[in-house]
Structure formats: C-alpha cells, structure tokens
C-alpha cells in the first residue's frame, strides 16, 4: 500500500474512534438547557420526571425527556464534563451505536427505578438530569474491565470501583440528589456491559481478533 493509501486509512481510523455520540449528547444537553431559559418556554414543566404526571396524566415521555434537563449551570457542567471524559474513553472501545444504546437504556433504567421509589414512598417531588445515564457508563466500564478480556490502558477494576464508590458517596451525602436514579443507571449499564463482554469474548474466540474494536 502506498503512502497515500496509508494516510487515508489512518484518517478513517481516527474518524471511527472519535467520540461522535458523546459530543452530540453534550451538545444536545447544552442546547436544551439554553432553550429552557427562553421566555415562555415550558420544557421544565413538561419534561421533569414526575410520578404524578406519569401516573395520572400518562405522560410517559418524561422518563426520556428528563435525562436531557438540568436544574442549573453547575448541574449541567458537572454532568457534561463527566460525559465527555467517559465518552472519549469508552465510545472508541464499544463503537458508536452500542455506546448510544447503553447510555440511553441506562438513563431509562435509572429513571424507572427512581419512579418506582417515588411511587413507593408517595414522593411527588420532580427530578431531572443525565446522572443516571452517566452512572450507566460507570457500570459499563466496570463490566468491560472485569469480563471482556480486553485491556484498557491505565484502567483497572479497582480504579473503576473507587470512582463508583466516590460518586455514590457524594450523592448519598449530598442534598437534593436522586440516588435511586444513580443506582438504577449503574445497574443497567453494568448488566448491558456484561452482555457486551460476552459478545466480545465469543467474537474473539470465533474470529481470532475481536469485532469489538472499530479499526
């Protein structure tokens, strides 16, 4: 292969490993946050996770929309920094579609557990934020380093467990935090990560080199 062909291959390799989904998710969250502050906008009223509105008014879309709403700039900034950091690390390993699917399903899992807790406690407070989905990325990363058989540079199970423990502790000791959403997202991401790890191992045995990494 000539130098031009090698350069083209390297270019497309970089494109495949660029965290497109993470960047799009961050951009979407920022844009929606800005829209929320436009005069007359009622995205908060229509999108927050509210047990009453979901049960009484059957507004099931809130389980999804609340993942893209944030209470203030600090809330948005902290979540998006983590999403961009985690996404840059994980998305190139899982592939774009798998990453997007696990992120969204983790967010749904977190919101469903939060909703169940609200109903059980007769708690009619609303909640919002991407934290459940982001905790899902923590669970996904833990499953990958434990079960996939692939090595990720400078990532060990103990480091991931410490990061998760610190994040959970911060939520449990902080005020006004929906910890059930965090736990639900974490469990959903871990479960999906285990399934992905099984697929990786089967693919590696079958093909000699895994289909997991996009090259």
Structural write-up:
This protein is mainly α. The protein contains 10 helices and no strands. The model is unreliable at 210-215 (pLDDT under 50).
Summed up:
With 215 residues, the chain is an all-alpha fold. The protein has helices at residues 3-17, 20-36, 43-47, 51-56, 62-65, 73-94, 96-121, 131-147, 157-173, 179-207.
Question: What structural keywords apply?
Answer:
215 residues; mainly alpha; 73% helix; globular; disordered C terminus
Major beta sheet summary? none
Uncertain segments: 210-215
- β-sheet strand percentage: under 5%
Spatial extent as radius of gyration: 19 Å
What is the average of the pLDDT values?
89
Can you lay out the helices and strands and say which pair or pack?
Blueprint: H1 3-17, H2 20-36, H3 43-47, H4 51-56, H5 62-65, H6 73-94, H7 96-121, H8 131-147, H9 157-173, H10 179-207
Helix pairs in contact: 2-6, 6-7, 6-8, 7-8, 7-10, 8-9, 8-10
């Amino acid at each position: 292969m000539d130098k031009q062909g090698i350069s083209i291959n390297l270019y497309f390799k970089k494109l495949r490993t660029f965290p497109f989904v993470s960047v799009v998710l961050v951009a979407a969250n920022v844009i929606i946050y800005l829209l929320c502050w436009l005069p007359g906008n009622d995205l908060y009223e229509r999108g927050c996770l509210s047990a009453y509105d979901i049960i009484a008014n059957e507004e099931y879309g809130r389980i999804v929309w609340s993942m893209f709403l944030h209470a203030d700039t600090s809330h948005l900034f902290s979540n998006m920094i983590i999403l961009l950091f985690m996404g840059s690390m994980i998305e190139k390993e899982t592939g774009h579609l798998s990453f997007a699917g696990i992120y969204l399903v983790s967010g749904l899992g977190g919101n469903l557990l939060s909703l169940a807790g609200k109903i059980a406690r007769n708690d009619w407070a609303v909640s919002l934020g991407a934290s459940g989905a982001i905790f899902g990325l923590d669970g996904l990363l833990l499953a990958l380093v434990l079960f996939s058989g692939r090595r990720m540079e400078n990532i060990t199970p103990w480091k991931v467990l410490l990061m998760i423990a610190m994040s959970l502790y911060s939520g449990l000791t902080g005020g006004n935090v929906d910890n059930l959403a965090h736990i639900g997202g974490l469990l959903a991401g871990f479960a999906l990560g285990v399934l992905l790890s099984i697929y990786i191992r089967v693919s590696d045995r079958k093909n000699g080199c895994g289909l997991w990494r996009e090259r």
